[in-house]
Amino acid sequence: MSFSTSNSSTTLSSTFYLTGIPGYEEFHHWISIPFCLLYLAGIMGNCTILHIVWTDPRLHELMYYFLAMLSLTDMGISLPTMITLFRVLWSISKEIQFNICVVQMFFIHTFSFTESSVLLAMALDRYVAICHPLRYATILTPKLITKIRIAAMLRSAIAIIPLLAHLSFFPFCHSHILSHSYCLHQDLIHLACADTRFNVVYGLVLITVLWDMDSLGILVSYVFIILSVLRIVSHEGRLKALNTCVSHICAVLILYVPMIGLSIIHRLAKHSSPLIHIFMAHIYLLVPPVLNPIIYSVKIKKIHQGILHLFFLKNISSTVK
After folding, report:
1. What is the pLDDT along the chain (321 residues), one digit of tens a residue?
2. What is the 3-state secondary structure (H, E, C) of the chain?
3. With CB atoms 3.0 to 4.6 Å apart as the test, which of 89, 120, 141, 277 could cross-link to 214 if both were Cys?
4. 96 pairs with which residues across the strands?
5. Residue 321 to residue 299: CA distance in whole angstroms
6. How many Å apart are CA 167 and CA 186, to the nearest integer?
7. Per-residue buried b or exposed e for 2-36, using 16+ beta carbons within 10 Å of the residue's own CB
């Protein structure tokens, strides 16, 4: 391997080297099996959700449109990493060009921020449905939902562009070996032999403004939801209202807990075992796309019925014919 060490060399032609599971290279082919199963489960699950919401007229409601948006963002996070992960685990190639690395980072970080925005929108949906049920249709109109979709995507994409564009000015004269089997911004800036304060500060501001504001909005929404639920006289009514929020709460925890864990490890446990960093990074990218379709399929009756109709009733009807 020959690494570019010249400060004058353009980063667009730089080659970086991805990392699999250090110390377990001889088992990479076997390790790829569970990863393959998880990716397939995530893709099939989210595609199933999208198909059911698209084809079932009963699901042409705002709540299910938000769920379809969540499935799209989950796939947008996992698909860009899948190709490079299996190229490494199957010993095809560990090399990745700088421009491809930046594109991969753009998709990963953009869809991560977008998923946070979608979860905030879903929290507002639950707030309006529980606290203002009679005004639900007038507040959350299809036109407003379209604006929310566009705003969530544009906000994330535009915010991440300056961070990634600034990388093109960095000379990477240190080791070009990345810590993961895909590109993350916090991983790449550690390899630059330049002043990276802008990227560090801008990245922290970005996380604070986007993730922290979204999580605060979700928290405030649930404070009002709980206060509204406590006003319901019947115990059954309270449980019914809270039950509509269980799947959304699980989706929030599935996204934020691995995200917070990965951030803490990158900042406070830099000298810990590389396996911990790799393990947390894969949980952050793989767990939400796999678990979200399962949770919503189990907890939401119409989705559950749609899946049964798609996979079982059609097979039964074709057998009868």
Report:
1. 443 433 434 444 478 999 888 878 888 889 899 999 999 999 999 999 999 988 888 888 888 888 899 999 999 888 888 889 999 999 888 899 998 999 999 999 999 899 999 999 999 999 999 988 888 888 888 888 888 889 989 999 999 999 898 888 888 876 788 888 888 888 888 888 888 888 888 888 888 888 888 999 999 999 999 999 888 888 888 888 888 888 889 989 888 888 777 777 766 666 667 777 788 778 878 888 999 988 888 878 888 788 887 777 655 544 444
2. CCCCCCCCCCHHHCEEECCCCCCCHHHHHHHHHHHHHHHHHHHHHHHHHHHHHHHCHHHCCHHHHHHHHHHHHHHHHHHHHHHHHHHHHCCCCCEEEHHHHHHHHHHHHHHHHHHHHHHHHHHHHHHHHHHCHHHHHHHCCHHHHHHHHHHHHHHHHHHHHHHHHHHHHCCCCCCCECCCCCCCHHHHHHHCCCCCHHHHHHHHHHHHHHHHHHHHHHHHHHHHHHHHHHCCCCHHHHHHHHHHHHHHHHHHHHHHHHHHHHHHHHHHCCCCCHHHHHHHHHHHHHHHHHHHHHHHHHHCHHHHHHHHHHHHHHHHHHHHC
3. 120
4. 16
5. 32
6. 11
7. eebeeeeeebeebbbebbbbeeeeeebeeebeebe
What tokens appear for 157 in the block? Answer: 């994409």
